[in-house]
Amino acid sequence: MTVSDVLTQLLAGTLPDPDGNGMLTIATKKVVIAPSLTGN
Questions:
Q1: Ranges assigned E (strand) in the chain
Q2: pTM of the entire structure?
Q3: SS3 15
Q4: What is the rounded CA–CA span in Å between residue 7 and residue 5?
Q5: Distance separating alpha carbons of residues 39 and 1, to the nearest angstrom
Q6: What is the residue extent of each domain of the chain?
Q7: Which of 3, 15, 17, 39 is the most interior residue, by most CB within 10 Å?
Q8: What is the mean pLDDT of each run of 10 residues along the chain (40 residues)?
Q9: Phi, psi of 9 (to 5 degrees)
Q10: Measuring CA to CA, which residue among 27, 6, 28 is closest to residue 17?
């Protein structure tokens, strides 16, 4: 599973919770991916 797959599942609410039953979900309205981690 790639990072892209994990992010897609997380944003869709279909990523299984590794610590228990159910799915991991987040309340996301917008995702911005920067070209680097330096904040530039």
A1: 15-16, 23-24
A2: 0.58
A3: strand
A4: 6
A5: 27
A6: 1-40
A7: 15
A8: 89 90 84 77
A9: -65, -40
A10: 6
